[in-house]
Design a protein that fits this description.
With 213 residues, the chain is of the alpha+beta class. The chain is built from four helices and eleven strands. It has helices at residues 2-7, 55-83, 86-89, 112-115, and strands at 94-96, 106-108, 117-121, 125-130, 141-143, 148-150, 157-159, 164-166, 175-180, 186-194, 211-212. A hairpin with a 6-residue loop joins strand 6 and strand 7 (157-159). The longest helix has 29 residues, at 55-83. It is elongated. Bound molecules: FE2/S2 (inorganic) cluster. The site of FE2/S2 (inorganic) cluster has 13 residues, from loops.
Length: 213
């Protein structure tokens, strides 16, 4: 019988992988090995080089980087400024303003911007008014034509010696300590102020609050 099957057309002989009696079509075929990847097709024709960066783009890049560097430098300097002791960068509270004969009678405003003071000279003394309104601290304006100081914030008025006479200011403006040094220069110390309540002179006649002439 076996020899007869072997002779029939279409008969597949038995193999070690296929047991006897199981048709060859029922045996699972082993997976096919992966096909080799096809080579990436390149477009035909000459190879195109990437175009060089135009000068305009380079310039824009430089400007952007320069802006970033400038911004970071500014931040760094502000950071340093915040942590540095202020005594290094702020002006001293003691300074010289010349000799008494440099001043005419009346109010001299030339140091207002630099030191926030006015030098005031009368017939018998020189003193220095600290230019700060005693209401809320604004800097009053000297009005020579009206012979008075006028505060721009709430309208307080002071006479030519800094004595308040109108508005909400509660008392006269303070006076800074003044001394003469060995050369006769007026040395002002705005860290030491002389004060007086409303209607009184109290500390304005203390030693150091004025230079007698
Ligand atoms: S701060 Fe000068 S009047 Fe108010």
């Amino acid at each position: 019988m076996e020899s007869m099957n072997e002779e029939l057309p279409g008969h597949v002989p038995e193999s070690p992988d296929r047991p006897a009696g199981i048709p060859a079509s029922a045996v699972a075929k082993p997976p096919a090995p992966p096909a080799p990847k096809a080579a990436v097709a390149r477009p035909a024709g000459p190879v195109v080089e990437s175009a060089p960066d135009p000068p305009v783009n380079k310039m824009r890049r430089r400007i952007v980087w320069a802006s970033i560097a400038g911004f970071l430098t500014t931040c760094f300097l502000m950071f340093l400024r915040f942590f540095l002791p202020r005594s290094i960068t702020e002006p001293s509270s003691v300074f010289k303003v010349g000799v008494p004969s440099d001043y005419a009678l009346g109010v001299d405003t030339k140091w207002q911007q630099q030191y926030r003071i006015w030098v005031d000279k009368t017939s018998d003394r020189v003193f220095v008014i600290y230019a700060r309104c005693t209401h809320l601290g604004c800097t009053p304006d000297w009005r020579a034509s009206e012979n008075k100081f006028k505060c721009p914030c709430h309208g307080s008025g002071y006479d030519s010696e800094g004595i308040n006479f109108e508005g909400p200011a509660p008392r006269p403006m303070d006076r800074a300590e003044v001394k003469l040094d060995a050369e006769g220069q007026i040395v002002v110390n705005i860290a030491k102020l002389f004060k007086a309540p409303k209607g009184e002179r109290s500390e304005f006649d203390d030693e150091g609050s004025y230079i007698p002439l």
